[in-house]
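Researcher: I'd like a structural prediction for the single chain below. Treat it as a standalone chain; there are no partners to consider.
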Amino acid sequence: MMHGDPLRKRKIAVLGSRSVGKSSLVVQYVENNFVDSYYPTIENTFSKHIKHNGVEYDCDIIDTAGQDEFSILNSKHAIGIHGYVLVYNVANRQSFDMISIVHDKILDISGESKVPCVVVGQKSDLAEQRQVQAVEAQKLAQSINANFVETSARTNTNVGEFIDLRFHGLNHSIIVLAALPFTSTRVLAWVPWSGKSCENLGLKGGNGTLWGA
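Model: Treating it as a single chain, here is the predicted structure.
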């Protein structure tokens, strides 16, 4: 980047039900700190400078208030957004069911018939309380042309690179994160939207896998 050139701007919205760990995920990524509880009704924007492949980005991450089936998605969550993180809690079936609802709301407010997606299941450390199996989440991700990965903010699993990895490919993408009940390598990636299904990026490791639609 030439001296004096502005940083490339990227804006990412994190969506999902209340108390699924959206804030914990964002704070862990931005501040490298685990926050167990966070006031659920406040919307915050976190900023982080990211350097990827020699290119610097000024990234705003919008940590939204939790959504439910009656929530109206704000237009600011569609205008100027380069990517979405759709988060559910693997120990909460209802939060998983909300992924499809939130996805449909994004389509409605954006006026698009298709959007690129990645699905993220949070709180993977809650192994004994798991209500949503990875294979089921993978099927949902495929049905909405999304990639899928599981993560845990508490154990810092798949958090450190969930934006950095393949950041240069970000182009109005949706990211879905899933929390794992086991240790996994960091595999989440941004996938560019081509109007078709997302690529299988072939990133695998440990007990975790990034699936492509």
